Amino acid sequence: MSFEGFPDEGLVFYEGLEADNSKTYWTRHRAAFESTVRAPMQALLEELALEFGTAKVFRPYRDVRFSHDKTLYKTHHGAVVNPDGRGAGAWYVQLSADGLMVAGGCWRLASDQVDRYRRAVADAVQGARLRREVDRLAAAGWVLGGERLTRLPSGYDVVEDRADLLRHKSLSATREWEPADWLHDRRALDEVRRAWRDLTALNAWLADNVGATTTEPRPRR
Fold it and tell me: Alpha-carbon distance 185 to 192, whole Å?
């Protein structure tokens, strides 16, 4: 199946879900989700897979077991590509009533990854590389984000122009588009591909300098 755009009905589906996040609404409109949201998203990801890798598509259901928010369904449909062996540096795409969002980088790092990230930021060569790339992305319209400390962590030497990067515990870049005509045809594929390519250098830096965690996962209770 080739990607032919995200139908407007998919955005309308999410407008309705935002207004009525209930099992009744979901059951009544499940077919619309499958045909106008899930299917085109899968087609988009299949066309991008050769260049970026196989994506993980997130479930539409929220895990409410440990959350005060008992809303049943996510009001967006997203997928992430995180190639095996990289450890850090991924691509993300999401559709919602607000339009299309793409992102890249890392959203959650283990303690050993955070330490490697900060050592690289403090390094004269690697830190300068990241500074240039972050500035380039910001100038190109990307919004830089990620969890960060309010104060500089101790034990790392870094020049002033990279102090903001040192406070990060994760680092990501995001771009959003409001609903537009191009979203409903193959131009959406071109936009996502172009945006993901623009994130290649950031993801490569994270893969080279942060990598995968070596800590043991916490046992589930």
Answer: 12
Q: Check: CB of residue 191 under 8 Å from CB of residue 125.
A: no
Q: DSSP string covering 91-157, please?
A: EEEEEETTEEEEEEEES---HHHHHHHHHHHHSHHHHHHHHHHHHHHHHTTPEEE--B-SSPPTT--
Report which of 56, 55, 73 is spatially closest to residue 64, judged by C-alpha positions. 73
Residue 172 near residue 144 (C-beta atoms within 8 A): yes
Q: C-alpha 86: how far from its chain's center?
A: 15
Determine if the pTM surpasses 0.90: yes
Amino acid at 123: D
**Confidence check: pLDDT of 150 > 50:** yes
- 8-209: in CATH 3.30.930.20: yes
3-state secondary structure of 179: coil
